[in-house]
């Protein structure tokens, strides 16, 4: 049986299998029920490894060992595998979140914070800058930066992107409002989108036509995106610079006032 390289690559990535597991599972799917020897011949996986691979697939829920001799394996249908994986991933994620949440109460977490404070203390503010890659990392940095604001938080970005990040910005806006932090927002997009987003987050957002995305905290920290690309390729520059942040905030207010 000839397995398409594109299919092997996609299945391997999507189901988090190694190359042997992928080839063996695909071969088993095409046969339905088969022995290790038959699977080895069909998949091209060495026979000596096929037994271990089939046992691994059985443990993961991709195959079922048939009672009797010689031992044969039954392929679990893809939709059942997908549902099992979704449940397992969700369960593992919940457990991981609980572990991380409880970590804050441990002595080790306090030690981690102390290590960071010790390392940061002698660093000059001008040296606190860097490149942030990937949209997930960008918004993680934005949340940390803006939630540390003591007086003012400035956001300039596309309206639809703000709306799509409801989980991040919804909670963040609530915290900033409760803390009495001034929130200034300028959005790009259709008037109807800007109005809807403003009402959704209960903020006053001005419209701006310049295609840009940046965030400023207390006019001393700024993160601005330098390209418009996919999640993995999006790049931002984070600067701890009062001069640059104040200048950009001033230009922001000028642009908004002209509307």
Question: What can you see in these coordinates?
Answer:
With 259 residues, this protein is an alpha+beta fold. It contains 11 helices and 10 strands. Helix 1 packs across helix 2 (19-31), helix 2 packs across helix 3 and helix 2 crosses helix 4 (47-60). It is elongated and about 80 Å long. It starts with a helix and ends with a helix.
TL;DR?
This protein is of the alpha+beta class.
The CATH class name of the largest domain reads Alpha Beta
Quote the beta fraction. Answer: 15-25%
The CATH homologous superfamily of the largest domain is termed Endonuclease Chain A
The low-confidence parts are none
Radius of gyration: 26 Å
- What distance lies between the first and last C-alpha atoms, to the nearest angstrom? 66 Å
Give the overall silhouette. Answer: elongated
Number of strands: 10
CATH topology of the largest domain: Endonuclease, Chain A
Order of adjacent strands in the largest pleated sheet? 4-10-9-8-5-6-7
């Amino acid at each position: 049986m000839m397995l398409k390289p594109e299919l092997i690559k996609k299945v391997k990535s999507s189901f988090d299998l190694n190359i042997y597991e992928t080839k063996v599972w695909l071969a088993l799917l095409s046969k339905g029920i088969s022995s290790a020897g038959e699977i080895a011949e069909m998949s091209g996986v060495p026979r000596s490894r096929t037994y271990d691979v089939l046992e691994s697939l059985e443990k993961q829920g991709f195959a079922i060992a048939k009672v009797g001799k010689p031992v044969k394996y039954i392929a679990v249908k893809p939709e059942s595998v997908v549902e099992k994986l979704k449940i397992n991933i969700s369960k593992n994620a919940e457990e991981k979140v609980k572990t991380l949440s409880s970590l804050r109460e441990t002595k080790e977490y306090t030690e981690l914070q102390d290590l960071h404070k010790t390392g940061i203390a002698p660093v000059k503010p001008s040296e606190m800058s860097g490149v942030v890659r990937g949209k997930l990392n960008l918004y993680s940095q934005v949340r940390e930066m803006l939630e540390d604001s003591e007086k003012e938080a400035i956001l300039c970005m596309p309206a639809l992107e703000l709306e799509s990040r409801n989980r991040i910005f919804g909670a963040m806006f609530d915290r900033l409002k409760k803390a009495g932090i001034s929130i200034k927002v300028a959005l790009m997009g259709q008037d109807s989108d800007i109005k809807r987003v403003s009402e959704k987050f209960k903020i006053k957002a001005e419209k701006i036509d310049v295609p840009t995305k940046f965030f400023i905290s207390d006019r001393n920290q700024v993160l601005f995106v330098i390209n418009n690309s996919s999640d993995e390729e999006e790049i931002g520059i984070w600067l701890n610079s009062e001069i640059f942040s104040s200048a950009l905030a001033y230009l922001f207010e000028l642009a908004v006032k002209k509307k």
